[in-house]
Design brief:
- Catalyzes the transfer of a formyl group from 10-formyltetrahydrofolate to 5-phospho-ribosyl-glycinamide (GAR), producing 5-phospho-ribosyl-N-formylglycinamide (FGAR) and tetrahydrofolate.
- Keywords: Purine biosynthesis, Transferase.
- It holds the Pfam family Formyl_trans_N.
- By secondary structure, the protein is α/β, with parallel strands linked by helices.
- The chain has a domain of about 150 residues: Formyl transferase, N-terminal domain (Rossmann fold, 3-Layer(aba) Sandwich).
- About 30% of the residues lie in helices and about 25% in strands.
- The chain is built from 6 helices and 11 strands.
- It has a 7-stranded mixed β-sheet with strand order 5-4-3-6-7-8-9, sandwiched between helices. It has a two-stranded antiparallel sheet with strand order 1-2. A two-stranded antiparallel ribbon has the order 10-11.
- α1 runs parallel beside α6.
- The structure holds glycinamide ribonucleotide.
- Glycinamide ribonucleotide (GAR) binds next to α1, β7 and α6.
- Glycinamide ribonucleotide binds next to α1, β7 and α6.
Amino acid sequence: MISSNGAGEAATAPTEPSAPIKIAVFASGNGSNFQALAESVRDGKINATLELVVCDKPSAYVLERARSFQVETYVFSPKEYPSREAYEAEIVAKLQAAGIDLIVMAGYMRLVTNVLVEPYYGRMINVHPALLPAFTGIKGVEQALEYGAKITGATVHFVDGGMDTGPIIAQKAVEIQDRDTLETLSARIQQAEYDLLPTVVGWFADGRVALNGRKVTINN
Ligand code: GAR
């Protein structure tokens, strides 16, 4: 908007700060990535609000973490539903009621169907503990270690209907040392994730992520 300052000169009105984006985190277990993200949001590093944690395991520790950050939780038991589509339809209703802008999958150990992908493609991301397209699926850390790879890492990518196949947004490399065990390597990859995931979510909050086919660019 252009307004006059009374002296005959045009002055540009200050830009309105954009509204915080509303985030839902999907998780199945410990939730340390949720924790890293929640701390970044709490500390004002990301222009977002955490609205919801969606979890498929009633005993998952992520639920305690969500409570401690006063984030609402939605817990479901997949075996109580006839199909993935059936529980996802309920999740979508919940997400839409909460006005969710971005879904962050952080240790959510389930494939998703078109029921979720169609309404949220381009607004749904996942963190994976390997450098995709290598070592997809579960046990990404173990796979890299057993394969004898020298470099692995963490990837944040868009979620499509496949297993870790969506367009890659950002990656961080981690060197594998000869003395690494599953525990030591997992710990270093997780440290990389705690940095990478909040950074990427911050890009979304600032409207910087552009998706064009398989290519993702981050605008300044
Ligand atoms: C994370 O390391 C994430 O990359 C991995 O699960 C872990 C969850 O840890 N995800 C996958 O393997 C998905 N294929 P957290 O619950 O402590 O955040």
